[in-house]
Amino acid sequence: MKENLKTIVFKVDPENPEEEKISVAAEAIRRGGIVAFPTETVYGLGVDALNQEAVKRMYEVKGRPPDNPTIVHIAEFNDVYKLAVDVPEVAEELMRRFWPGPLTIVLKASKIVPRVTTGGLETVGIRMPKHKVALALIRASKTPIAAPSANIAGKPSPTTAQHVIQDFYGSIDVILDAGPTKIGVESTVLDLTTKPPQILRPGGVTYEELKEVLGEVIVHEAAKARESVQLIEARSPGMKYRHYAPKAELIVVEGETNRIVEEIKKLIDEYSKMGKKVGVMATDETIENYKTGIVKSVGSRLDLSTIARNLFRILREFDDEGVEVILAEGVPEEGLGLAIMNRLRKASGYKIIHAN
């Protein structure tokens, strides 16, 4: 692993990315380097998806298990047919409806995709991000870009360039800083090689939206993340390993809102008596109920997109403030709630309390 690189950090205009900055980053990608860049979901750690050595180095730098596949990012619809074979009509329908956007489609991989990029699988996850900086970088690089989230494996995902700098300054070539990401949780991963199609990871495109197009779609048990599911292979990022986790112990409390609040207040007392520094991940509607501990609102229960956007940032803030135990309120699983609960449950290592 190369270390002590001179990492270049560029502030980039998210709406009109400066060509000269993008071309420096694209040159690094073409040389086999690693470039962190923003997407609408989280920041990605990008390399040339077709360059085996570059992909291997990215896995090493990130500390990512080799059987955890990456998502390949493209900027032109036609690239799908280079990267995948047997592309069904339904894939084209989904691409028209949701791309560019936070949907990754899993298809049978073509021969040009190195198996190191797919985590050894015969399938490949492909998406077209909805971010002008990401699209400009892919086009200028003239190659698809494999990009898992730009965080050390297992840590909360990065939603600002500052998070990327904390994890990778000195070990990657370029960081493109275009401000905070809009969605804040990763893309939805949909496997189209199974019948019916299967959600392997919930994300920015919801189950309800996919059902509208597909009629029938199922959510993999590992994607619900209600308990640990033993998997032989990870068909998508975010399935097999502990992800999104802060250094602090994280406990998720689920149930009706008023019951959640009562349970968390009890837990604050218990942990405080043990001398633990306690953080509470509350919501706008409940924050006034907590009088002790480090209390932060992650957003509004009436607008789950605010919670998705702030989730990883708040987890990192608790770590920065030396919190030892985080007590997080659960939200209903409708819409973006499924993706939020997937991240929280996995981050907690399935430490879930049902306050009923």
The beta-strand count equals 17
- The radius of gyration computed from the alpha-carbon positions, rounded to a whole number of angstroms, is 20 Å
Mean pLDDT: 93
Query: What about the largest sheet?
Result: 12 strands, mixed
State the separation between the terminal residues, measured CA to CA: 49 Å
Q: Return the string of H and E elements.
A: EHEEHEHEHEEHEHEEEHEHEHEEHEHE
Number of helices: 11
Structural class: alpha/beta
Shape: globular
Q: How much β-strand is present in the residues?
A: 15-25%
What is the CATH domain class of the largest domain?
Alpha Beta
Q: Level of helix content? A: 25-40%
Find the CATH superfamily of the largest domain. Answer: DHBP synthase
Give the count of structural domains: 2
pLDDT < 50 stretches: none
**CATH architecture call of the largest domain:** Alpha-Beta Complex
CATH topology of the largest domain: DHBP synthase
Please characterize this protein's 3D structure.
The protein is α/β, with parallel strands linked by helices. The chain has helices at residues 19-30, 52-62, 79-83, 89-98, 132-141, 161-168, 207-214, 221-224, 257-273, 304-320, 337-347, and strands at 8-11, 35-38, 43-48, 71-73, 84-85, 103-109, 123-127, 145-146, 174-177, 188-191, 198-201, 218-219, 249-254, 278-282, 294-297, 325-329, 352-354. It folds into 2 domains: 8-183, DHBP synthase; 249-354, Threonylcarbamoyl-AMP synthase, C-terminal domain (Rossmann fold), CATH 3.40.50.11030. It is built from 11 helices and 17 strands. The longest helix has 17 residues, at 257-273. It starts with 7 loop residues before the first strand and ends with a strand.
